[in-house]
């Protein structure tokens, strides 16, 4: 596999890096459909079960769907915040039974996806402010590696890069890691292998990505965890109930709990 050949681009109009938000965890991937939103919901539920005040922010500004996976019809969303109708903290919608809150994006709104750098900077400032009201904030990012995604990811203290064992997912995860490491040397980047056939398959997938990072980028992003492929995942999404609420003992639910636990543990 030729992971290193992915072309890097930093792109014009990228706002200057600013200090990361200390309690913000971003979920990114590069490739779409690897389970970012589903994992974000799982982690938010796991944090809430650990008595953390948790917020899930739908940062997929173009194709928001946290609310869809949760079956929410929020009265307030990011669109209203951007229109200045209410402040960001007031846009949070509680998720019944799950114990966390959501700031919903707005699906299909191209204008949100194409925010200019200045508005994006203001949005990130409001996110930093909003985050002070919570113990943990999760940022579900859109697919791809374009400017908005990279800018939002760079605001997070920790960035989880999700992949599966498909070559395209690995290539895109590598591209994402490369760009973030370039714009924020020393960033806390960690890998999640999702939809793994087994723990050992997941380890192998992680090894492939780590080797490419070590060879070509001279960094070694640690493994945040492996989440096994689990039919309960699809079933929970279909019923619009978080997996950890619906099937707390399912294999994937336990894998997510372990990742959340590690994120909550102090480093070292
Ligand atoms: N561990 C898993 N086991 C089985 N199915 C899974 C698992 N993780 C995710 N899925 C399935 O993958 C699908 C895609 O998940 P999700 O929408 O969260 O991906 P995404 O990365 O957020 O996509 P996008 O890039 O479009 O935002 C879900 O419908 C879910 O059924
Ligand atoms: Mg998603």
Name some characteristics of this structure.
268 residues; alpha/beta; Rossmann fold; 8 strands; 42% helix; binds adenosine-5'-triphosphate; binds magnesium ion
Folded structure, characterized:
The protein has about 270 residues and is α/β, with parallel strands linked by helices. It has a single domain (about 25-265), classed as P-loop containing nucleotide triphosphate hydrolases (Rossmann fold). Helix content is about 40%, strand content about 20%. It contains 11 helices and 8 strands. The longest helix is centred in the last third of the chain and has 19 residues, at about 200-215. The model is unreliable at about 5-15 (pLDDT under 50). The structure holds adenosine-5'-triphosphate (ATP) and magnesium ion.
Classify the beta-strand content into a percent band.
15-25%
**What is the β-strand count?**
8
The biggest beta sheet is recorded as: 8 strands, mixed
Write the CATH architecture name.
3-Layer(aba) Sandwich
Bound molecules: adenosine-5'-triphosphate, magnesium ion
Per the CATH scheme, the topology name is Rossmann fold
Q: In the CATH hierarchy, what is the class?
A: Alpha Beta
SSE class? alpha/beta
Regarding quaternary structure, what we see is single chain
Task: List unreliable stretches of 5+ residues.
Answer: 4-13
CATH homologous superfamily placement: P-loop containing nucleotide triphosphate hydrolases
Run of helices and strands = EHEHHEEHHEHEHEHEHHH
The residue fraction in helices comes out at: 40-55%
> Which overall shape is indicated by the principal axes computed on the Cα atoms?
globular
Instruction: Count the domains.
Output: 1
Mean pLDDT: 90
Number of helices: 11
Radius of gyration: 17 Å
């Amino acid at each position: 596999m030729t992971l290193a050949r992915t072309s890097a681009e930093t792109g014009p109009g990228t706002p200057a890096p600013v200090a990361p938000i200390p309690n913000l965890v971003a979920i990114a991937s590069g490739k779409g459909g690897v389970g970012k939103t589903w994992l974000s919901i799982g982690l938010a539920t796991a944090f809430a079960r650990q008595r953390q005040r948790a917020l899930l922010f739908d940062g997929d500004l173009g194709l928001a769907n946290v609310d869809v996976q949760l079956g929410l019809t929020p009265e307030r969303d990011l669109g209203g915040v951007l229109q200045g109708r209410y402040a960001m903290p007031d846009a949070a919608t509680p998720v019944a039974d799950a114990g966390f809150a959501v700031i919903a994006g707005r699906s299909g709104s191209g204008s949100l996806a194409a925010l200019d750098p200045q508005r994006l900077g203001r949005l990130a400032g409001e996110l930093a402010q909003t985050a002070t009201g919570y113990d943990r904030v999760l940022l579900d990012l859109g697919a791809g590696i374009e400017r908005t995604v990279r800018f939002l990811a760079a605001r997070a203290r920790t960035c989880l890069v999700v992949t599966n064992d498909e070559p395209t997912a690995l290539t895109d995860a590598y591209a994402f890691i490369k760009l973030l490491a370039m714009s924020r040397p020393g960033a806390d980047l960690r890998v999640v292998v999702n939809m793994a056939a087994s723990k050992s398959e997941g380890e192998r997938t992680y090894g492939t990505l780590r080797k490419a990072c070590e060879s070509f980028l001279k960094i070694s992003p640690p493994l945040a965890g492996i989440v096994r492929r689990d039919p309960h995942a699809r079933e929970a999404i279909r019923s619009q109930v978080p997996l950890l609420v619906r099937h707390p003992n399912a294999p994937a639910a336990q894998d997510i709990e372990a990742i959340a636990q590690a994120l909550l543990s102090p480093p070292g």
